[in-house]
Amino acid sequence: MYNQTFHQLEQRISKLLNLIEIYKYSIVTNNKKKEQYKKDIHDFIDKEYVTMKQDSLLHHSLIHYNYFQFITDQKTQPIDELTVGHTVKYINSVQQRLYRIHQLLSLFL
């Protein structure tokens, strides 16, 4: 069964996954815009947190709740650059956690 809220959530998760991937790539290539990419991620997470908190979207489903928990964790412990090797591993683990939520959501779409 197709649900608009699931579709919107899928779009937001995909956007966040893309922002994280761009930031990870900028770290590996030492791109001069990596601070801007990191700021884009933090701004997106802040916006998502406020939106989900105000609209009580976390009560829609377990997937929404898991995504909200992910956003909350990232808000309290934002992605930051460590050493190159450790940062990439850390960001990969963050991406995997978000990707698992995305996979579960794709089962409903």
The CATH class assignment is Mainly Alpha
Helix/strand order: HHHH
Strand runs, count: 0
In the CATH hierarchy, the architecture is Up-down Bundle
Domain count, please report it.
Answer: 1
Helix/strand-derived class?
mainly alpha
- Are there runs of 5+ residues with pLDDT below 50, and where? none
Structural commentary:
- The chain is mostly helical.
- The protein has one domain (4-108): Four Helix Bundle (Hemerythrin (Met), subunit A).
- The chain has four helices and no strands.
- It has helices spanning 4-29, 34-55, 62-76, 84-108.
- Helix 1 runs antiparallel to helix 2 (34-55) and helix 3 (62-76) packs antiparallel against helix 4 (84-108).
- It is globular.
What structural keywords apply?
109 residues; mainly alpha; Four Helix Bundle (Hemerythrin (Met), subunit A); 4 helices
